[in-house]
Amino acid sequence: MNIHPLFVHFPIGLLVAYSVLELSVLLFPKLRFAAWAPSVKAFLLFTGVPAAFAAIITGVLAEELVETAGDPNLAIIEMHAAFALATALLYFVIAAAYLVRVFDVKGWGDRISAGNGLFIRIWSFKKRLARSVLDTPLLPALALLALASITVTGALGAAVVYGPDIDPFVSFIYGLFWAR
Prior knowledge:
About 85% of the residues lie in helices and about 0% in strands.
């Protein structure tokens, strides 16, 4: 039984909403200072990323069903799976940076690492890494790259389910990977 469709749409909505919110700061700079924005973005990431990994797990199970049935779409499914994993990892990097920021603001990281030189160095490294993601132009670039990746993932998924000619966008994405 293929339960992948039950799990896939929730993370798509959450993570696309995150990217749109993150990228809207470029058009509306005042959003950067909105008190609610960091909490909303963290919520979208902290719920969307685990849901994305659940979708990947159910996708692997669905791929095993297809392999045993000898589906001719196996090459598309494998490319879809690769883009899904890349998408989840991109959003995971951003979510990890947000998580470090939360631990830093609350002071939990300093309390946990206190008294242990190795933990202090590791925590300091994580904070620098989080700052390099969240406080530089890398964040909107990652958000845009993740949004592009989730879009390609969805188009390839649509090509598997409905065929590559379901709409012009899916046909275009399909044509990037397979000659017609």
